[in-house]
Design goal:
The protein is 38% helix and 14% strand. It starts with 12 loop residues before the first strand and ends in an 8-residue tail after the last helix. The longest helix has 16 residues. Strand 4, helix 3 and strand 5 form a beta-alpha-beta unit. The strands form 2 sheets. The protein has a 7-stranded parallel sheet with strand order 3-2-1-4-5-6-8, sandwiched between helices. A two-stranded parallel ribbon has the order 7-9. It has 11 helices and 9 strands. The protein has 281 residues and is α/β, with parallel strands linked by helices.
Length: 281
């Protein structure tokens, strides 16, 4: 499939999840480059709710390119893709994740299939763990509490900054040459979670212990009141990821944007300077 012809002048780029970690960065970069943006989320000026399909078509109307980010655990609705094409969308850029086949992530595998088979020009952005998980997302409370349990042992991950993910997504949304491509987006180095937490500790003057074993993860799950079956499912998924061994950095960010991907230590220093771990909200 060839790239779509140039977008209609003034046709907005629809950014879903526009107040989220990547969405707001994608929207900001598009605006900085003087592309018209329609930033949509449940509580934005352009309302969009995956659970309310009456919000879909007003958000899609007139848009030709869409940044497609799915909330955690939510599948991509086939009807949304059909409506997008019916309203004139010609390019879809989907945020996905690394190693979804090995981890059995049917939700994202199905989303990728829908995008690839849609008939639109498509790009899939497969990102590794976000740096911002530690200061904006799921690990922040653990950092502040001084202990993170995740059954990955010393397996090294290629943590990637959300700004770099956004830069790749914007390139795919606005430039030629990215159609029918799946991009593996990583940071410039592979670090264990223990390494990452030690780096944050140095930057923010914190002490954060890492527990990479399954028993501590189970105990933490019990203390949090999580259902046993959910904890065991997570352990199985993480075991599949760990079985892949250390992740390997790619050159995707540099190749698509012209600048190197951000080192984790740089991210940690910047986040600490902004007060990311100065205390609980």
């Amino acid at each position: 499939m060839h790239d779509a012809p140039p977008a209609t002048p003034h046709a907005p780029v629809l950014v879903l999840g526009a107040r989220g970690t990547t969405g707001r960065r994608v929207a900001a970069r598009l605006r900085e480059a003087h592309h018209p943006v329609r930033a949509a989320s449940r509580d934005s000026d352009v309302p969009f709710d995956w659970h309310d399909d009456t919000t879909w078509e007003p958000a899609l109307a007139g848009a030709e390119r869409v940044y497609l980010m799915l909330p955690h655990e939510l599948p991509l609705a086939p009807d949304f893709v059909q409506r997008a094409l019916a309203t004139g969308v010609r390019r879809l850029v989907l945020l996905s994740s690394r190693a979804i086949e090995e981890m059995g992530d049917e939700r994202l595998m199905a989303a990728e299939r829908l995008v690839r088979d849609s008939g639109a020009d498509w790009t899939v952005v497969r990102a590794d763990w976000f740096n911002q998980n530690f200061d904006e997302g799921i690990f922040r409370e653990a950092v502040l509490d001084g202990s993170l349990a995740l059954p990955l042992g010393e397996c090294r991950q290629t943590f990637v900054d959300a700004d770099d993910i956004a830069a790749v997504a914007v390139a795919a949304l606005t430039e030629d040459g990215h159609t029918s491509r799946t991009y593996e987006v990583t940071g410039p180095e592979a670090l264990s979670f223990a390494d990452a937490l030690a780096t944050i500790g140095r930057a923010a003057d914190l002490s954060v212990a890492f527990h990479g074993d399954q028993d501590t993860y189970r105990a933490t799950g019990r203390a949090e009141g999580r259902p046993t079956q959910d904890v065991e499912r997570d352990i199985s998924v993480f075991a599949a990821l760990a079985a892949l061994g250390d992740a390997h950095p790619t050159d995707t960010v540099h190749r698509l944007t012209g600048h190197p991907s951000k080192r984790f230590a740089t991210y940690a220093k910047e986040a600490a300077a902004m007060g990311a771990w100065s205390g609980k909200e």
